Amino acid sequence: MNIGFVGCSFTQGAELVNREETRWSRLVCDKLRANELNSALSGSSNEMICMKAVEMSYKSRPDFLVVQFTTCIRFSLALDKMILAIGPNQQARNKAEELICKIAFSQEISPPDWYKLFRWKALTLHSFLNENKINHMFMYMLDYEPRTMMADEYIPQSFKDRSVFVGMREYCQKNNLPIGRFLHPLEEAQKAIAYELVLPKIGSLV
């Protein structure tokens, strides 16, 4: 059995001493005796995460795919043959990025606007995975996106059934689990995410 994982630093295993062995995706695969296909990348936007999910679906055809969404206020920018993920706390590296960040993170674009863009991406990916018969589930870095989705009448039940509606960061903080300097889950928190959040959901879907 091959299980794919896409996401940002929370799935890549940032701030872990030996992330390939101790991140939650590896713990899940060890428990299920599955092969881990982890292409998560720190700093990824949801656009990048969706693209990686589509790419993995075509190239690897995993038996199950875990998609971890990041904050909806990151976005991707194609520049100089590279795709960059930009967030509100990231320092611009040139005039083009500075101008784009100034517009994107101005008061003209509110959190509900960012959420609507995210919802479209998430539902499009959900439809794609269903169409291609890729069994899947969704996870979240922060509480804002899943909390908003739970109350959103436009989110179909089929999407909600595949979601763990809790942000990993807030889950760790509420349960006093160890986190690093940059708020990433450390080893004991990785175990809790694997055994308490991910494995029960996979079990309900496989």
Notes on the structure:
This protein is of the alpha/beta class. Helix content is 48%, strand content 17%. Strands 2-1-3-6-7 form a 5-stranded parallel β-sheet, sandwiched between helices. A two-stranded antiparallel sheet has the order 4-5. Strand 4 (75-79) and strand 5 (82-86) form a beta hairpin. 34% of the residues are buried.
Cα end-to-end separation? 11 Å
Over the alpha carbons, how many angstroms does the gyration radius reach? 17 Å
Poorly predicted regions: none
Mean pLDDT score: 88
Q: Widest sheet: strand order?
A: 2-1-3-6-7
Task: Report the principal-axis shape.
Answer: globular
Count of alpha and pi helical runs: 10
SS class = alpha/beta
Strand content: 15-25%
Largest sheet: number of strands, sense, barrel closure? 5 strands, parallel
Write the element-wise H/E pattern from the N-terminal end onward: EHHHEHEEEHHEHHEHH
Protein traits:
206 residues, alpha/beta, two-stranded antiparallel ribbon, 7 strands, 17% strand
SSE order and pairing:
Layout: E1 2-6, H1 9-12, H2 19-22, H3 24-32, E2 35-38, H4 46-59, E3 64-69, E4 75-79, E5 82-86, H5 95-104, H6 111-131, E6 136-140, H7 144-150, H8 157-160, E7 163-167, H9 168-174, H10 187-205
Parallel strand pairs: 1-2, 1-3, 3-6, 6-7
Antiparallel strand pairs: 4-5
